[in-house]
Design goal:
Blueprint (H helix, E strand, L loop, with lengths): L5 E5 L12 H14 L3 E3 L12 H15 L6 E3 L5 H15 L3 E5 L8 H14 L4 E5 L1 H4 L5 H7 L5 E6 L4 H10 L5 E4 L5 H7 L3 E4 L6 H12 L3 H18 L6 H9 L16 H10 L6
Parallel strand pairs: 1-2, 1-8, 3-4, 4-5, 5-6, 6-7, 7-8
Helix pairs in contact: 1-2, 1-9, 3-4, 4-6, 8-9, 9-10, 10-12, 11-12
Length: 293
């Protein structure tokens, strides 16, 4: 398996004005982030508006990303849901067709399982999946928090190799860093906390902002991983206010506004998501000036 470390990018899904897939723009995004120095690609995550994509569209997106990437970087496919049996079927199908380096699987949403339910869900996925599983904890979206004690139990499965931690709690991240095995992959899921997470012992991030400023973001993460925190802080604070704005009216509306202003995509989202307000768009554009793509 290729090394998954450093800056991963949660790829957006660009749409045409009629809301069909814009595969030309997607190809530009993939080429752009690779040129910008990111370390791995993550299609079909929350940022990719996967909840509004049809099954056939998922396949087309994966085909496009696979072809453009041409095995240059590791690929981690987002594959989660709140029906464990269906997620198992999808893992097997995606693995057979696209041979990813790993799957990123979000905690089941809406049905709010207990910690024991989460444990059994992930154990079944790990038993069934032909490739490694990365846990994804984002309680602000799913309504359930995958607690460190449960994560520690899950680290005992050889096919569960890491976690994307997006609880928004530095202390929870520190609990993971203090208790997880050294070879367990800790990835930040909060762009504004990524530097703090790495200082706490994380080994990378899956970033939204890296869609629009891959050069800046990758340099920040690499400097932090090299313990050059003076350089990392410089890049962090050049990005910080812009990153805050990206999420002010929801993700991926903010990053799509930035990319649309650069002429890479159209500012189109699928309902129930909508573009950002004009005032926020102007602020994102202003703060994003000078950031390296």
């Amino acid at each position: 398996m290729k090394k998954i470390k450093g800056t991963g990018v949660a790829l957006i899904t660009p749409f045409q004005q009629d809301q069909s897939l814009d595969l030309i723009a997607l190809s530009k995004i993939v080429e752009g982030v690779i040129a910008g120095g990111v370390d791995f690609l993550v299609p079909l995550g929350t940022t990719g508006e996967t909840a509004t994509l049809q099954e056939a569209e998922l396949e087309v997106i994966l085909q496009t990303v696979t072809e453009v990437n041409a095995k240059r970087l590791p690929v981690v496919i987002g594959c989660g849901g709140n029906d464990t049996t269906q997620v198992v079927h999808k893992l097997k199908a995606f693995s057979q067709r696209w041979n990813p380096d790993a799957f990123l699987s979000v905690t089941p949403y809406y049905n709010k399982p207990s910690q024991e339910g989460l444990y059994k869900h992930y154990m079944l996925l790990a038993d069934a999946s032909p490739v490694p599983i990365i846990l994804y904890n984002v309680p602000g979206r799913t309504g359930v928090n995958l607690l460190p004690a449960t994560v520690i139990r899950l680290t005992e499965h050889a096919n569960i190799i890491g976690i994307k931690e997006a609880s928004g709690s530095i202390e929870q991240g520190m609990e993971l860093a203090a208790q997880c095995p050294d070879d367990f992959l800790l990835l930040s899921g909060d762009d504004t906390l990524a530097l703090a997470h790495i200082a706490s012992g994380f080994s990378g991030v899956i970033s939204v902002a890296a869609n629009g400023a891959p050069g800046h973001f990758s340099k920040m993460i690499q400097a932090a991983l090299n313990s050059d925190f003076s350089t990392a802080r410089k890049f962090h604070y050049e990005l910080f206010l812009w990153m805050q704005l990206l999420f002010k009216e929801g993700n991926p509306a903010g990053i799509k506004a930035h990319l649309a202003n650069k002429g890479i995509i159209r500012p189109v989202l699928r309902l129930p998501l909508v573009p950002v307000s004009k005032a926020l768009e102007d602020a994102i554009v202003e703060k994003g000036k000078g950031l390296r793509g």
